[in-house]
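Backbone-to-sequence.
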């Protein structure tokens, strides 16, 4: 009898032979190569080391639990230690994983993956130098199998043609069109090339380590926001039913990982709906810069600036929901005695670049410090051994824990449009909401169009996803076709199909979209203008600051 405190949570001892068993009872899958409960304890691999309150490292498998012990299972020092062991093992290990009988069932491979070992500090055998110039993706031609999926994706779907094969015959390699590093090649960071790459030749950048460092720093308050599309993409990888309260489980897991506060980007999306609707109304009144282009997708914004600088005045001045929300949160905590580190969990790779843009800094300060993708969050949850299917859901934190269904559907293509239409519609009845759902902006098509009456006129509206589809629409607009409002998402299907998500082909992408609409149906508030939390911000925190915190200059 008695208790041992594991990562701050008291766990009752019930005759466990060692700390490892007690830690597993606490829902943490501590890694080990050599521990089997039915065999004698060998204690050789040292993977299951944990830290005591006094700072000593002990092997959990060969340490008896004692009343009052305080144990940490996941500190920067332990992570460094585990990675070092794996790197040393790998250094001596044959790396022909793909042709190994044990491939996919090998623990070394599995743990190397779980701890994100992507580089060995010991000599390897590939000569190719990765191109790490982009903030979003890394290109390592040494791992390329020349399948060309990325080349076709970048040109056919995204209309950019950045990636190409260089040289001929046996010297053929993947590279950028002009031979420049990715960051200087016009890449918009959409990551769709990484999403289709079958090997490690194009991978999404990893910002997890810096997030772990912040979490491990007692003088830092780490605040997170979770994007709408994330909640509908984790169930399969984390082995739980999509019908479970996934957002609640994500919040609980993130608290467990050490995030101090967890908020929902949908709250930021509600702010965007209010600001963007007001902007549209102003432009309609003044009859200028129509159509209004949405600005929440950073890959689309850089595409437009690069390919059509003459159309930049059409872009909404709204910061993206991620950036609006981060600015509001930073304002709220500005007098905190701790350093504030803001982490955004996004389905998107381009958000990594957006976060660092000069024009989005306020008073020289970057509002979002780190963007991690859905896949990176899944890895962090796995790295800590949290059993997602079993964790009890928790609520979002106050004071920003309220969002509407309108904010939630931002995560699927056409969702921003529908949310704005809800705001503009003068009929606030449930029947009007249902009618809007059948207006043609839902579904998987790359271009969706509708017309609505507003301010005594008929507005023409389009929602488009995939940059080639956007380009086709821009051509029509430049040829004289009139639109009033155009939503563009760079990734096919919108954020739900973002390159930071676990890979999803057509059907599962559609499933994600359905789940977002289901979450909207279940939400008790469906219109952004009815979010009382957001409304109260205008009379408080945002007073006199709405322009500064919620908008940006695209020419800056
Ligand atoms: Fe998106 Fe958005 S919807 S851009 O697709 O406007 O990434 O999910 O968070 O900012 O809300 C992404 C998603 C996301 C923003 C919102
Ligand atoms: Fe092309 Fe997008 Fe890949 Fe950049 S991230 S190379 S724009 S597909």
């Amino acid at each position: 009898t008695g208790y041992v405190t594991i990562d701050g949570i008291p766990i009752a001892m019930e005759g466990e032979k060692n700390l490892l068993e007690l830690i597993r009872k606490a829902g943490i899958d501590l890694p080990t190569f050599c521990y089997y409960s039915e065999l004698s304890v060998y204690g050789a691999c040292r993977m299951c080391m944990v830290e005591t309150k006094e700072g000593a490292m002990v092997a959990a498998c060969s340490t008896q639990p004692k009343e009052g012990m305080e144990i940490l299972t996941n500190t920067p020092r332990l992570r460094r230690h585990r990675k070092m062991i794996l790197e040393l093992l790998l250094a001596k290990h044959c790396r022909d994983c793909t042709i190994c009988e044990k491939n996919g069932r090998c623990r070394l491979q599995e743990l190397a993956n779980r701890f994100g070992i992507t580089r060995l500090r010991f000599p390897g055998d590939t000569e190719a130098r990765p191109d790490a110039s982009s903030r979003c993706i890394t290109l390592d031609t040494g791992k390329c199998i020349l399948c060309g999926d990325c080349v076709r994706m970048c040109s056919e779907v995204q209309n950019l043609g950045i990636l190409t094969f260089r040289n001929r015959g046996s010297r053929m390699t993947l590279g950028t069109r002009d031979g420049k590093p990715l960051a200087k090649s016009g890449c918009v960071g959409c990551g769709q090339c990484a999403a289709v790459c079958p090997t490690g030749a194009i991978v999404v950048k990893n910002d997890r380590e810096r997030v772990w460092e912040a979490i491990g720093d007692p003088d830092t308050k780490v605040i997170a926001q979770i994007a709408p599309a994330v909640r509908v993409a984790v169930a399969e990888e984390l082995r739980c039913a999509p019908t479970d309260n996934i957002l609640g489980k994500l919040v609980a897991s993130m608290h467990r990982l050490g995030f101090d506060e967890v908020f929902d980007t949908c709250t930021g999306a509600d702010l965007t709906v209010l600001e963007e609707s007001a902007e549209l109304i102003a432009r309609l009144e003044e009859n200028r810069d129509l159509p209004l282009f949405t600005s929440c997708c950073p890959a689309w914004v850089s595409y437009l600036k690069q390919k059509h600088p003459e159309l930049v005045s059409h872009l909404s001045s709204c910061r993206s929901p991620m950036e609006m929300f981060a600015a509001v949160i930073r304002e709220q905590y500005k007098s905190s005695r701790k350093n504030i580190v803001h982490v955004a969990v996004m389905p998107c790779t381009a958000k990594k670049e957006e976060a660092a843009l000069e024009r989005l800094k306020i008073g020289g300060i970057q509002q979002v410090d780190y963007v991690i993708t859905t896949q990176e969050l899944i890895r962090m949850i796995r790295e800590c051994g949290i059993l997602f299917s079993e964790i009890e859901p928790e609520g979002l934190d106050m004071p920003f824990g309220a969002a509407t269904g309108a904010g939630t559907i931002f995560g699927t293509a056409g969702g921003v449009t529908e949310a704005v239409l809800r705001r503009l519609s003068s009929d606030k009845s449930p029947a009007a909401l249902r009618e809007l759902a059948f207006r043609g902006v839902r579904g998987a098509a790359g271009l969706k169009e509708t017309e609505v009456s507003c301010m005594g006129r008929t507005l023409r509206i389009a929602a488009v996803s995939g940059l080639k589809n956007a380009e086709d629409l821009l051509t029509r607009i430049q040829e004289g076709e009139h639109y009033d409002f155009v939503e563009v998402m760079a990734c096919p299907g919108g954020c739900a199909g973002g390159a930071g998500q676990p890979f999803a082909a057509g059907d599962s992408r559609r499933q994600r979209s359905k789940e977002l609409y289901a979450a909207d149906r279940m939400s008790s508030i469906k219109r952004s203008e009815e979010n009382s939390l957001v409304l109260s911000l205008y009379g408080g925190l945002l007073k006199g600051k709405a322009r500064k915190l919620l908008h940006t200059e695209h020419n800056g």
